[in-house]
Every structure is written in structure tokens, then in C-alpha cells.
Amino acid sequence: MLTTRELIVPKLRVLIVDDSTVARRLLSDALSQEPDLEVVTAASGAIALAKLSQVNPDAVTLDVEMPDLNGVETLKRLRKAYPKMPVIMFSATTIKGAAATLDALAAGANDYVTKPTGTSGPQEAAAHIRRELAPRIRALCSRASVAAPVVSVLPPAPKRIVPPAIIAIGVSTGGPNALSAVIPALPPAFPLPIVIVQHMPPVFTRLLGDRLGAESALRVQEAEPGMRVLPFNVYIAPGGFHMTVERSAAGLVIGTNTQPHENSCRPAVDVLFRSVAREYGAATLAVVLTGMGSDGLRGCEHVRAAGGRVVVQDEASSVVWGMPGFVARAGLADKVLPLNEVPQELMRQAAMRPSAMAG
Q: How many CB atoms lie within 10 A of CB 210?
């Protein structure tokens, strides 16, 4: 029989790095309420780098904007010695903060959490941190409990050989880097429109679209309501809004709304996938990349019920195999692929269309 001592699970040690005393106290107090987490703090990037070998943390949170050695520079130095250490950026919801956060993700940060701006007081701010940051720490440290997959309740429709007419992508944790590996790899003549939900707040999604557009031959933009859904274009759902594809007198266009969150998200992948399955039916190709949670699972059920196809990223190449894992375990994925094979699969599927990528 196991004793109480033997049943105790070691706590995850988190090193909080922030030059603000108020922020360090807020983060420390909030995370210390979690029974499986313990906290160590550092007041600067330089102190954090010196502490790493002594503290041996399971994860690090880094303030983006710090004097002397900012979060991005601290991250770059940390990565040289600790290439696999889970690092989460703590970011302001400003243009400067969003840009620096995207820089940090490109430099090897695993994820980010926005600072609790606009909260009514310390308790609400702490609740934001516990809700947003604690689950990411657990997931990135591979100790998060994964719920049993939900079995599809919609019977898959019989498969028909229908060339895809649109690609719908859902992604979350690790998404900016995953998208940077997929979208710029597609040729300028890629003939299908691409609609994307990346779990991100306002400002972040616009900057993400700008960066992907600068790297890509395709036109990448943050979506706006009324935009026509056209080939050679990539549309990213704006932060804070659900994105849909709707039929109008002008043809198929982008719609946005502020209906309630789904899966604690807005934009939500399920909302987008349902609308695409409704309008495109069997000509839908849904792609679920790295991310926490199960957003996209119900949407993939609708895609499969409409006769469409589903591709998901594999576990080995995902930062977190939550979203794609749920879809795969539910038996909804036609293919489970490493990230570096996803662009080739999209091009293969697009080539099924007459005159695809010609010229």
C-alpha cells in the first residue's frame, strides 16, 4: 500500500523573470495558489540567467520589456544552454508588446500570455494568470492531464473524391512558428483560399498577418467582414472576433461576430470550421495544427459529416498535441503528418483541381 509521501507528485518549479516588483508579486501570488506549482523569481534577465543552473526550473516566464537585457535577448541566451526549456513570454497587449512577443516566439519561446490589463483589481488579475498561465505551464512541462477524447457524434458521410476548394486551418500554442513553416512554403500560384483561426488577441493577429505576408508569396491579411474569399489569399481571423465564411450576393465572403466564446476562445476554430463545412461541403480541407485544448474537434466532425477531409499535425512536431491530438484520437483525421510535410500535402490536395498551380 502506498504511503502519503509516495503519493505526492513533485511540484513544477517556475522561474518568474520580471523587472517590476508589482508584476513579480502578482505572478508569484497567483501561481503559488496552484498546489502543483512552486515559484522562484528574478528581477532581471541577467539575474535569471545566473540563477538557472542553481534553481533548475521546469519552466520560465519572461517579461517581454525589461531594461538592459530585454525578454527576447534573455531568451536567446537562455536557448543556447537550455534549448528545450519551456519558456512563456508575459506580454503587454500593445503594438510594441505584440511585436516583441512575435519576435520572441520566432526566437524559440514556446508560448505567451498577455498581462491582465483592464481588470477590476488584484483578485481578477490573479484569476486571469491562473486561468491563462498555469495550464500552459503544465501542458508545456508534459504533466497536464489529458481528457479522454470525445467520440464523434456525427456519422461521417461517405467519402467522395471531391477536390478541395478551400483550406481552413486551426492552430493555437506554437501556432505562429507552425504557420511560418506552412504558409511561406506555398507557391504564388497556390489556387485555394486559406482561412485561419490562430488563438490570439487583437493587435497580435494583425501583426501576425503582416509578418506572414512579408514572408509569403501569397497575400496574407487580417480578415475584415465583407472580404471576398478568393484564391491566392490567406485570411487570419481578427483577435476578439469569431470568423465565418458566408454566402452573399457577391459570392462567398468573410463574416465576423462577437457571439459568445466557444472552448473559451474567440476566435474559435469550431466556429470557422462549421461555417466552411456548411458552405463548401465535401470541398473542405480542414487542417489542425499544434495547440492546447480541443477547439476544432467539433468543427472537424462537421467537416467529415459534409464529406470533407481533415489533416492534423503529429505529436512529435507539435509544441502541444492538444487540438490535433483530440481530432486524431476521435478517428476524424484522414492524415496525421509532421509539420514539415503539411505544405506538400496541401499542394498535393490543391493539384487535384483542374489547372491547379498552372503558370
A: 16
Alpha-carbon dihedral angle through residues 179, 200, 215, 181, given to the nearest 10 degrees: -20
> Looking at residue 68, what is its pLDDT?
86
Q: Which of 128, 199, 242, 302 is catalytic?
A: 199
Q: What CATH number should be reported for the domain whose range is 166-350?
A: 3.40.50.180
Q: Extract the residue ranges of the chain whose pLDDT is less than 50.
A: 5-6, 143-154, 358-359
Cα dihedral 257/262/266/269 (nearest 10): -90
Q: Examine the residue annotation and report whether 199 is marked as an active-site residue of this protein.
A: yes
pTM over 0.70: yes
Return the CATH fold of 11-140.
Rossmann fold (3.40.50)
295 an active-site residue? yes
Domain ranges of the chain: 11-140, 166-350
> Active site residue: 19, 295, 317, 318, which one?
295
Q: Please identify which of the residues 172, 180, 216, 317 carries the catalytic annotation.
A: 172
Any residues with CB less than 8 A from the CB of 142 and at least 6 apart, and which?
none
Query: Residue 270: helix, strand or coil by DSSP?
Result: helix
Opening angle at CA 155, ends 149 and 160, nearest 5: 115
Which of 58, 65, 50 is closest to 103 using CA atoms? 65
Q: What is the pLDDT of residue 146?
A: 45
CA distances, 150 to each of 39, 147, 188, 295, 312 (Å): 34, 9, 38, 12, 16
Looking up cell 491579411 gives 221
Contact 105, 96 (CB under 8 A): no
| Within this chain, domains 11-140 and 166-350 share the same CATH topology | yes
Q: Grid coordinates representing 199?
A: 488563438
Active site residue 32: no
Q: What is the pLDDT of residue 7?
A: 52
